[in-house]
Amino acid sequence: MTKKLMQAAYYEKQGAAKNVIQYQQMPIPQPGAGEVRVKIHASGVNPSDTKSRAGWGGIEKKFERVIPHQDGAGVIESVGENVDKSRVGERVWIFEGQLGRAFGTGAEYIVIPSEKAIILPDNTSFAEGACLGVPAMTAHRTIFADGAVEGQTILVTGGAGAVGNYAIQWGKYGGATVITTVSSPEKAKIAEVAGADYIINYKTEDVVKRIQEITGKKRGINRIVDVDFSQNINVADAVLRTNGGVAMYSANPDDAPALPILSLMLRNIVIRTILVYTMPQDAKEAAIKDITAALKAGKLHHNIAQLFSLTELASAHEAQDSGKMIGKAIVEIS
Question: Which of 229, 237, 311, 324 could potentially form a cystine with 248 if both were Cys, beta carbons 3.0 to 4.6 Å apart?
């Protein structure tokens, strides 16, 4: 007998996770033209998922019922018209699963455009595959948006965070020397595993002085990947060399920093904002290509903080929102 229903987590109004997330059976979706249906084995939680659920910064709910989460991994079970039937059975990781759509990866099944289901190498688990979409693709863009980085020196702030951790790895993948900042010895160990060449505890060390000691120059940083540019402007101004740049990927609604415009302009500093959902298609394709190659070569490490079941999805959101979790929250779906 063909299974017709699936378990899903969803919300119909915005608010605190435990107040709005519900669980129930829903019809299994059918793939349309150009789409594939994936049996989800793992679903990744990102800040954008929990912010959308909470209505953070005035984000509006665009659908009556929302199954959350952009990222996930699983196996293609069926395909729609114009999709090669040989895709059935492929292990895949998913990106932008809920972008512009009501139903994301927080369920047993998802239907998505075929091009957003990327082959997952056998050496990578489903839980690891669910880490990739938002953080690994964002990090790739922050490192390579302005070209090759071989021989350069990069500063990654918040090197234990999901994006920052992948940014360290992409910097090393591209042949750069990577300096990162962290706030604790525990986070320093995570940054070390990612491959950072130098780790600075910004709680106990003078970041600018330490960077100058490492580089041997007053301003020796080529590029900065910044999780909190509004708070780190003075550091960026102090250490960026001429023709350097900052790639920022996170901000708050009320961030309105005063910039040292003249100082930055005199050195031709580029300030680049990154949002994975709206970055150019060629940048997404470049990230997917490098992610695939790096996975096959075993060169990407995935920092999973905690595993949850589907009926614990609300708890996974709370863990993400707590600010205490170091690494990714992954929802495993059997």
Answer: 229
